[in-house]
Amino acid sequence: MGSGRPATALTAITTTDFQEWRRASNARENVEEGHAYYNDPSPVPPPEKHTPSSLLQCHRKLVYRKENAPAETEMAQGILWVGTRFEEDVVLPYLRDAVDDDGLLVTNSLYVDFEIETDAGALVVKGSTDPVVVDDNGVPILPTEVKTKGSLEYLDEPNEHHKAQLHAYMVGLSQKYDVDVKRGCLIYGGRDSFDLKVFDVEFDTEFWQETVVSWATEHTEYRLDGELPPATPRFGWECDFCSYRERCGKSNRPVSDRGSRGFLPLMEYPRSQVVEHLKAEPDAMLTPTLAERYPDLAAEHGVSQWRCTACSKQFDHDEVDWGGDTDTPPLCACCVREDTPAPLTGPWPPAYSDEIAEGERSE
Question: Is 24 helix (H, G, I), strand (E, B) or coil?
């Protein structure tokens, strides 16, 4: 073996971007499996449509996500992948062995699609369950919802939004199979201990109507009215893990109540999110910051101008010599000559109300 071959292999490994390789591999796999549309941006769902997994989440976060706002962090693909593997490779075989002596079977998933009559009209809930215990005719008996957590040490009760998800399964399966599904179980897997905690969940009519259906009605009304929901999630911890906290106004940036289109100035978005947003919004322009960060994308898409925060003069992005450090934005050359240095910034995305009004005018 040549002495240079290990070094060649190591160079190939260290210079091949893993994230880009994984995205390209997934895109190719989607095409090969006849699902090329998976590579397209998610279509904006109608206001009346809900998924079980979204119930009780922050209204504003969901509006941003549904309307394809650019996420400020990479999506948690690793956690999602681990969760899927844990469910399919560990929990599913365990469940099948556990109920086998009772003559029961376990299907890996069932689809639910049902309507709820509310003050906002008929709402639609669609989605796929996690494993479901069924009888030998395939009739559901006990739906489950499988989640993974870093640790199970302090988990004493199921999370409320997971209960809401399981309640949606119970309602949907009851309607679809004309049975009365009143119990389910939430299964939490510990990624550290590789153990399980199982919670028996009985259907609670008051919780379903007063909490879950009320939440879904409120969310639909926000979207029907073209109103950006308040930045007050039901669960305070959501803000710490949110991919839209800068746009929402939960940081030190002077921004709040922005719409879903466009990028925030002096913000470094992950490349994957930039590409996805440009697919979803073909008229969107890169900020000078993103043009500096991704010059190949700047060669393919429009780039907005720098704007002085003091004199309001504007400059093309390639006119400004800047190292790319967002903590020290470039200074306006005109103001520097006047001994009144002022930083440059990019354009702000429109406020949500302006964005909605623009959309109505274009229809």
Answer: helix
- Coil, strand or helix: which one is 340? coil
Sheet containing strand 140-149, edge to edge, reads: 105-107, 132-134, 140-149, 183-190, 196-202
Please report how many Cα atoms fall inside a 13 Å half-sphere around the Cα of residue 99, on the Cβ side.
18
Q: In which order are the strands placed within the sheet that holds 111-118? A: 49-50, 121-128, 111-118
Six token digits for residue 119: 């003050």
- The bridge status of strand 49-50 relative to strand 140-149 is unpaired
Query: Tens digit of pLDDT for each residue in 47-78?
Result: 999 999 999 999 999 999 999 999 999 877 78
Nearest residue to 94 (alpha-carbon basis) of 146, 166, 151 = 146
CA dist., res. 274 & res. 284, Å (int):
10
Tell me phi and psi for residue 258, to 5 degrees: -80, 155
Digit-coded pLDDT (tens) for 212-242: 999 999 999 999 999 999 999 998 889 988 9
Nearest to 165 by CA among 126, 221, 134, 206: 126
In sequence order, what E strands does 103-167 have?
105-107, 111-118, 121-128, 132-134, 140-149
Q: Are 68 and 42 in contact (CB under 8 A)?
A: yes
Length of the chain: 363
Report d(CA 121, CA 213) in Å as an integer.
Answer: 12
Place of tokens 């009739």: 139
**In 3-state terms, the chain is what percent helix, strand and coil (to 5)?**
40, 15, 40
Per-residue confidence band for 202, with pLDDT thresholds at 50, 70 and 90: very high
Return the DSSP state at 57: S
